[in-house]
Amino acid sequence: EINDSFLLSNLLTIPGFSELESLFEIVDPINIYKQSLDIQVLIGKEILPDLKILINNILPNINQEWPLGKGERKLLATIWSYLALAGDETIKKTCVEAIGSSSMTIARAALGALKPLDSPETNEASNLFYDLWNENPVVLDSWFAYEASRPQENGINIIEKLLAHPKFDWKAPN
Predict the structure, then answer these.
(1) Whole-angstrom Cα distance, residue 86 to residue 19?
(2) How far apart are CA 157 and CA 48, in angstroms?
(3) At a CB cut-off of 8 Å and minimum separation 6, what does 88 contact?
(4) What is the pLDDT at residue 174?
(5) How far apart are CA 168 and CA 144, in angstroms?
(6) What is the distance of C-alpha 59 from the center of its chain?
(7) Alpha carbons 92 and 87: distance in angstroms, whole number
(8) CA angle, residues 111, 158, 129, in degrees to nearest 5
(9) What is the average pLDDT across 38-59?
């Protein structure tokens, strides 16, 4: 049994895009992204009951002051991602509720779990995050990055709207 949440999160995380693309002579970014999501959906569905047990085991330690709870928060983000991709409706709602968390790490984990989904929860979470943080330019920069990187068919139009947004600052270093 693995008791280190940080290590377990790393073990459950599949290789990132840059690692995956290095395996191909001809890189097809869209295909790599879709295949990566498909693998994560499969993993989430296959180990769904175990992931739900893990969540129950780590939740008591989530809100500990840093550095305590750091591994549990990372593991929670990993689990939420798998369960959201596997279609768990309860987790999608939990992620929306987590946007208002006092922990920015948990709020961002919730956004990250919902990011690849074309769902009402993804839009609701994004809107909530914006409403909470639209007066904080540093945090709002992360919202702009999030919105710009969400997989959407009309991505270019969305990016153009973000660039024209009254709160977007070209001079922001992030």
Answers:
(1) 23
(2) 36
(3) 44, 48
(4) 66
(5) 8
(6) 18
(7) 8
(8) 30
(9) 89
CA–CA distances in Å: residue 40 to residues 81, 85, 128: 8, 7, 26
**Can you count the helices (H) and strands (E) in the chain?**
10, 0
Here the tokens at position 61 are 């330690």
Tens digit of each residue's pLDDT (9 = 90 or more) over 60-87: 777 777 777 788 999 999 999 999 999 9
| E strand spans, 34-82 | none
> Across all residues in the chain, what is the average pLDDT?
88
Any residues with CB less than 8 A from the CB of 58 and at least 6 apart, and which?
Answer: 5, 72, 75, 76
**Cα(75)–Cα(62) distance, integer angstroms:** 10
Q: Which residues, 6+ apart, have CB-to-CB distance to 106 below 8 Å? A: 62, 73, 76, 98
| pLDDT, tens only, 89-137 | 999 999 999 998 888 889 999 999 999 999 999 999 999 999 999 898 8
